[in-house]
């Protein structure tokens, strides 16, 4: 009975999910939260604290140690990893790991020494910049100028030079740490780093996640010479050529065979970005369905029928792991903003839902929030600056129920305003992510977007996407067969829009847009 393991190394946790393609069942689903389980890395929310709000780095050794932890837990939880015929997975997008030696030259991992201790001496840079970093304004401008402007960068790579993207991050490293740059032999994304750990060899970056670097030429599916040159000298030597997302990048390393009982020869399929992986895990890799993912970042994405870029410059084009492209708009004030409101008003997650559904109404009695508790990607807000507009109690921070509704209404209105370029009619929207079972959030999304909101039965769609991609590559199964078995929507949780809310949100969204203009001007 073949089983497949999907991993998702996201901002705040590493998740592992095992499927059985004979029974059509998810047989295990576990998660290791970095802040809670690995406090020695000082990344309470998945990243290191920094005196500069724009700088957001993480410790890559934490991701390595989490891999050992989650596999140990799977085994202790009774999962027979010998039955796993293939592994794939995903990583938070754009984050990068810098190695002093290519893993192709390191030799096999020793099974007797914890993996993070073997990886530590290989790092040429101790920390990894992640997608939340916004410290590269200067580098973005330099790269765009060298290539012939932002529109040119977008035409080649699918996105303008973008603060969190790996190319500008690499350029900053090259400029600010020349000695470490010179010691760097190989650069990985979080996704290819995780696949490299599993194979013990250097795994190539896939086209799905590779498109989030401002380095990939979407037309040729290879690194763009012009973008590489504009980013840093000698960069081509530090990157393996990218591969299609369905490529088998190697076999599981002996370390994992000895420690966790994997079968020797188990195939590892290229890892991809968490959003491209979710596209698969939601069964949405064909154009026609929009997805909202509610995680540390909120994202809106869809498979693209034809490739185009966002005229406003915020949206991105990534590779669709099933072939072609996907569009995405990313909002950094996702769960971090919701969690901050819940913390300030001492609301449990249940209180939060109840406040929205039972204690407040669409339009929130005129209370309105600009929800920028951390620097925002869409629209570009460089300094955290939440702003409250409405009744006195609300503005004075004394109305927790209204605050809960306000943050979610603002997030949904921002999605509505910034996702039109995606070009998919939002009549039915699939939702995924940690918060996708919260009935308060689903209600507001349905009313603001005026769409049927449909969660899937499995909320960890990125790890599920990894398991499905492993099954597809190893068994040669058709995507649609896998989707029919593993991605059924949870119709009981579906939420229909209230038509009476439509005019209310027309007006509130116009007010929101107006206040945004003031903030951005
Ligand atoms: C997408 C993005 C985020 C991260 C979060 O472009 O930056 O959604 O992938 O994990």
Helix/strand structural class: alpha/beta
Biggest sheet statistics: 7 strands, mixed
- Name given to the CATH homologous superfamily of the largest domain: ATPase, nucleotide binding domain
CATH class of the largest domain: Alpha Beta
Write a structural description.
The protein has 521 residues and is an alpha/beta fold. The chain folds into 2 domains: 3-275, 2-Layer Sandwich (Nucleotidyltransferase, domain 5), CATH 3.30.420; 283-455 and 490-521, Nucleotidyltransferase, domain 5 (2-Layer Sandwich), CATH 3.30.420. The protein is 37% helix and 18% strand. The chain is built from 20 helices and 21 strands. The strands form 6 sheets. Strands 1, 2, 3, 5, 11, 12 and 13 form a 7-stranded mixed beta sheet that branches. It has a 6-stranded mixed beta sheet with strand order 16-17-15-14-20-21, with helices on both faces. A hairpin with a 4-residue loop joins strand 2 and strand 3. Helix 4 crosses helix 6, helix 16 (400-418) packs across helix 20 and helix 18 (461-475) crosses helix 19 (479-486). The protein is globular and about 65 Å long. The mean pLDDT is 96. D-xylulose binds at residues 10-11, 92-94, 131, 164, 212, 273-275, 297, 299, 316, 328, 330.
Summarize the entry for a quick read:
The chain has 521 residues and is an alpha/beta fold. The protein contains 20 helices and 21 strands.
